[in-house]
Protein: EF-hand domain-containing protein
Amino acid sequence: MLCYLYDYFELTVMFDEIDTSGNMLLDAKEFEKAAPKLEQWGAKIEDPAEVFKELDRNGSGSVTFDEFAAWASARKLDVDGDPDNAPESA
Structure:
């Protein structure tokens, strides 16, 4: 259970850092500016516009936390760059 809370916390930290408008949504411009940071966390982004379309599953023109979290979790992104820092599961 502790691992899930830690993962959720990390995803929240990531999202908050790249949501520069603070509106709890990512637009294409925010995502493009965040690409280097996302790559630092382990994402492979060749074309930010294409990846943004992939994230924006409902086609709204913005990415919600849930959409981002599903994408980031599937790619095992790590905010501190060290997967060994995660708490051990009990």
The domain at 2-81 is CATH 1.10.238.10 (Recoverin; domain 1).
